[in-house]
Amino acid sequence: MEVNVVDPFFRKGYRFAGRAEVLTEGPVFEAICARFAAERGTDRRRINGAVLVDVTAAEALVSPAYDDGTTETVIAKRWAEHHSGHYDAWLAGR
Description:
The chain is 37% helix and 32% strand. By secondary structure, the chain is of the alpha+beta class.
């Protein structure tokens, strides 16, 4: 399995690859649920499953938006405006 985690404003992040296992019961699953409850206050009843990834490779990801020399500040501002517009449209439609 491959998981990409990218900051929506800076358009940078990481790619993790490895073998994944879907857990819906057992001691490892319960330990994951307990951790989410302790660290995030997640109600155990809301958790139906978890994916445990044995990461075998990790690498940095950088958007092609940087290829032309555009700075991080410009890209972050561009995406902040983009997301703000979607939020404003969503609020207007409520």
